[in-house]
Specification:
3 helices; single chain; 70% helix; two-stranded antiparallel ribbon; mainly alpha; 70 residues
């Protein structure tokens, strides 16, 4: 496995992480009766995932080679 292919895998993993963090727990959180500060836990989870998404996309962009936009 070359350095280039491992970098591509890392970027795909960083992009897939927030996608999975938002979608996979939703069926379980949606039916949960729990509330945090009066907010349903599913909505709280979505707002908690926003910084994770931003961080993962920033890391994926920084892992991209400099000539990737050409």
């Amino acid at each position: 496995m070359s350095v280039r292919s491992s970098g591509i895998r890392l970027r795909y993993g960083l992009v897939a992480l927030p996608f999975c963090a938002v979608l996979l727990p939703m069926p379980f959180l949606y039916v949960s009766p729990f509330r945090i500060l009066g907010v349903p836990i599913a909505l709280f989870w979505l707002f908690a995932c926003l910084p994770l998404t931003t961080l993962c996309l920033a890391l994926a962009a920084s892992c991209a080679p400099a000539d990737a936009d050409r």
